[in-house]
Amino acid sequence: MDLPRLVVLSGLPRSGKSTVAALLAERHGFIRVCSDDLREEYGMVWGTRDSRESVVNHVVHYRAMEGLMMARDVVVDTTGMFRAQRRLFFDLSVYSLGKVYPLNARRLLISLDVDDAVWQQRQRDAGRDLAQLGFYRDRFESVTPQEIREVDEHARYTNNTPDELDRMGKEIDRLLSQPHLRRDPSNENGPAQDR
Fold first, then answer.
1. Which end of the chain is more exposed for a tag (fewer CB within 10 A), N or C?
2. What is the pTM of this model?
3. Does residue 189 surpass a pLDDT of 80?
4. End-to-end C-alpha distance for the chain, whole angstroms
């Protein structure tokens, strides 16, 4: 039986994460776990300093693990702007009754970049305050080589135009159709090896 796949998306607001998550859900049957949907579900307003905000990422992680436990593919659709958040999403441990149960899944990290002018226009089109969004741009922690070594696969895309989105969709389809390769942790560069 193939391992379930966990795809974590990382990128600034309006970089195309939800579009990619929808593509994965529609084309490949992934369960989409989205922090914006959770905020809406709990009556939280995006961009405010709601005291419950610190809990959102833990609920995202819980729901992702729930999908993986049911042997479903999961895509985490959240900004993932801090390394600690991305580390949490890739923690494949389930804690129950004082025990730790490790899950096994194919872990993919997809980073989405967008040119600044395109990003600003998307924010304006969405009616968002650019000054408020500077918080995200200024504090966003880029994916590190260490993070890339810790996952099974990493892909980085620039999402500025519909043509780029189409190309990205085709490349993601190709990536998902490849057999699962597990990185060799003893090698610094982490070349993939058959599972």
1. N
2. 0.84
3. no
4. 12
195/181 Cα distance (integer angstroms): 6
Q: How far apart are CA 12 and CA 15, in angstroms?
A: 5
Among residues 90, 110, 89, 85, the alpha carbon closest in space to that of 9 is found at: 110
pLDDT at 2: 82
- DSSP secondary structure letter of residue 161: S
Cα angle 151, 195, 25; round to 5: 55
Res 1: pLDDT? 54
**What is the distance between the alpha carbons of residues 43 and 147, in angstroms, rounded to a whole number?**
33
Contact criterion met (CB below 8 Å) for 99 and 9: no
What does the domain layout of the chain look like in residue ranges? 5-178
Closest CA to 172 of 119, 109, 122, 114: 109
